[in-house]
Design goal:
Largest sheet: none
Helix content: 55-70%
Radius of gyration: 12 Å
Strand content: under 5%
Number of strands: 0
Number of helices: 3
Shape: globular
Distance between the termini: 14 Å
Order of helices and strands: HHH
Amino acid sequence: MQKKLYRSNTDKMLSGVLGGIAEYFGIDSTLVRILFAAVAVFTAAFPCIMLYIICAIVIPSRPIDIE
């Protein structure tokens, strides 16, 4: 079965993008959030925020029957 990237329905703070990425790679979502925050702080924050918004629009939400 092929893995697919979905926004998380259960592990979300805003829209579930980072929780979904963590589920896809099988790592803790806290690490993904810390990494995202560090990249946003130490680089330009605006592109990171725009990337998050684009991902929230493009990545589909996980269907309920896949849980």
